[in-house]
Amino acid sequence: MKTLGVIGGMSWESSAVYYRLINQGVAARAGGLHSAPLLLHSLDFAAIAAAQAAGDWAGLAAQLGTAAQGLVRAGAGAVLLATNTMHKLAPAVQAAAGVPLLHIADATGAALQAAGITRAGLLGTRFTMDDPAIVQDRLRLNFGVSTLLPDAPGRAEVHRVIYEELCRGRIEDRSRVAYQQQIAALQAAGAQAIILGCTEIGLLIEPQHSPLPAFDTTSLHAAAAVDWICS
Q1: 124 and 65 in one domain?
Q2: Do 70 and 113 sit in the same domain of this protein?
Q3: How many whole angstroms separate alpha carbon 214 and alpha carbon 101?
Q4: Domain holding 40: CATH number?
Q5: 198 is annotated as an active-site residue
Q6: What are 5's strand-pairing partners?
Q7: In this structure, are 113 and 205 located in the same domain?
Q8: d(Cα 73, Cα 65) in Å, to the nearest integer?
Q9: Of 51, 131, 149, 53, which is closest to residue 90 (Cα–Cα)?
Q10: Mean pLDDT, to the nearest integer, of 24-43?
Q11: pLDDT 10s digits, 83-121
């Protein structure tokens, strides 16, 4: 098996899910006592979130690039960013690392395409929803999937729940209802599926909570990691 470098901690709540899913996937694939050969660089999310809010993307690119280089020096043959939002910096991180970066939009786009989905609602942080370059353009250009977004108040509430609740390990029923309302609105606007486009959203919205097929970027990304490790 090949060794994968994971840049996590953004937040650790979803990084823990990645760790579990990747190890479960490798165990299912390889059998016995096998587990995934992983190298993890876990960042302090408070500092990351402050830099995001300040718009210091150049500083964040340098920080993540340094983390990726450290993982490669330690033996990683590819790098995974365990977050949707920080894929804003994916080109810079891959350039710094000099090894493949397993892009979250590619894992998501392949699953949507295989299911015949061409219009999907997207829920995520305000950064992911407001900047098409993070995932939306890649889904459209590479997989033929267009995205629909909540309205401005809806986007604000989706973002608030992520940072104020999910990243802190809080799962609130009222927030699940608020997300279900956004999903219903996107369905009414023509969405065929919903993309859980923040790695924490799957903690709140499980398949039974959505009237639309839910594509959880965390589990899809983890599955792509298993494929790479075992290939």
Answers
A1: no
A2: no
A3: 24
A4: 3.40.50.1860
A5: yes
A6: 39, 79
A7: yes
A8: 12
A9: 131
A10: 97
A11: 999 999 999 999 999 999 999 999 999 999 999 999 999
102 contacts 78 by C-beta, under 8 angstroms: yes
How many structural domains comprise the chain?
A: 2
Q: What is the pTM of this model?
A: 0.96
Task: Pick the catalytic residue from 108, 125, 167, 198.
Answer: 198
Helices 57-73 + 90-97 axis angle, to 10: 30
pLDDT of residue 211: 96
pLDDT, tens digit, 9 for 90 and up, residues 34-86: 999 999 999 999 999 999 999 999 999 999 999 999 999 999 999 999 999 99
Are both 76 and 45 inside the same structural domain? yes
Full residue range of the structural domain in which residue 188 is found = 105-216
Q: Is 97 in the same domain as 153?
A: no
Report in angstroms the alpha-carbon separations of 128 from 82, 123, 132, 155, 225.
14, 8, 7, 10, 21
Nearest to 125 by CA among 110, 141, 104: 104
123 shares a domain with 85: no
